[in-house]
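Researcher: Quick test of sequence recovery. C-alpha cells follow.
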C-alpha cells in the first residue's frame, strides 16, 4: 500500500513551522522544525518536518549534521543539491556567528578562554588545523592565524612564519592551538616536539609562548595546566 502523509499545507497555522515561528517566536520551534524551514519541502510520502526528524535522528543531532558535506547530505532521500547547499550554508553561518561572539572576549586569562575562542573555529573539523593567537602585553588577542591545514594524520608548521607574523603584528606573546579530530586529548610526540621548537625560538626572539592548547569538540588540553611547560 502506498504510504501517505498529511501535508504541512493542511496543518493548522499553529503547527506549520513558518507560521509557528512568526506567531510564537523562534524558541518555540524544535530543531527538526527549524531544519524543515530550510529544506522547504518534503516529498509526496514525507513532510519536510518528518524528513528533518529522520535526518537528525540518523546523524545524532545538529553538531553531527554540521560535519556533513553536501555529498553526504544528498545521500538522504528527499535531499537534493539545492537543499544540501542551503543546510551547509546555514550551519556555517551559525558557526561563524559563534566565532564572532567568542572574539568579543579578547583578553586571555586562562586556557578555558582559549578553548572558548577557538572551539567554534576548529573544534568540529574533520581535519587537523594549527592556529596561533598573537597577544599584546596585556594578553589581549590582537590577531589569530591559521598556520597549517592537513589531514587527520597531522599538519606541518613553519616556525619561521609564526615569528614573521608575530613581528608584523607587534605581538609580545603567542598561544599555539590545534585540534584533534579523533577526539583524543593526549598530545603526540610531534605535538610536544613542535611546541618545544617554537618555545626555544620564542625565547631567543623575546616572544613568549604562553601555552599550547589542543581542542576537540567539547574538551581541551592545556600544556600549561598539565605541567608540560
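Model:
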Amino acid at each position: 500500500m502506498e504510504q501517505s502523509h498529511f501535508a504541512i499545507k493542511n496543518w493548522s497555522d499553529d503547527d506549520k513551522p513558518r507560521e509557528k515561528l512568526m506567531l510564537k517566536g523562534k524558541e518555540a520551534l524544535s530543531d527538526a522544525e527549524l531544519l524543515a524551514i530550510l529544506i522547504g519541502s518534503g516529498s509526496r510520502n514525507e513532510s519536510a518536518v518528518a524528513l528533518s526528524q529522520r535526518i537528525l535522528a540518523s546523524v545524532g543531532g545538529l553538531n553531527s549534521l554540521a560535519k556533513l558535506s553536501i555529498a553526504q547530505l544528498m545521500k538522504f532521500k528527499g535531499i537534493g543539491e539545492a537543499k544540501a547547499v542551503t543546510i551547509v550554508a546555514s550551519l556555517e553561518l551559525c558557526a561563524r556567528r559563534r566565532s564572532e561572539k567568542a572574539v568579543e572576549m579578547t583578553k586571555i586569562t586562562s586556557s578555558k578562554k582559549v578553548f572558548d575562542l577557538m572551539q567554534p573555529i576548529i573544534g568540529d573539523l574533520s581535519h587537523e588545523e594549527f592556529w596561533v593567537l598573537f597577544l599584546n602585553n596585556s594578553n589581549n588577542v590582537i590577531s589569530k592565524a591559521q598556520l597549517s591545514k592537513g589531514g587527520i594524520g597531522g599538519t606541518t608548521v613553519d616556525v619561521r612564519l609564526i615569528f614573521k607574523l608575530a613581528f608584523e603584528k607587534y605581538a609580545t606573546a603567542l598561544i599555539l592551538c590545534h585540534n584533534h579530530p579523533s577526539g583524543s586529548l593526549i598530545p603526540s610526540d610531534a605535538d610536544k616536539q613542535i611546541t618545544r621548537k617554537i618555545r626555544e625560538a620564542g625565547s631567543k626572539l623575546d616572544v613568549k609562548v604562553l601555552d599550547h592548547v589542543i581542542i576537540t569538540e567539547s574538551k581541551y588540553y592545556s600544556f600549561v595546566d598539565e605541567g608540560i611547560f
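The CA atoms of residues 74 and 80 lie 5 Å apart.
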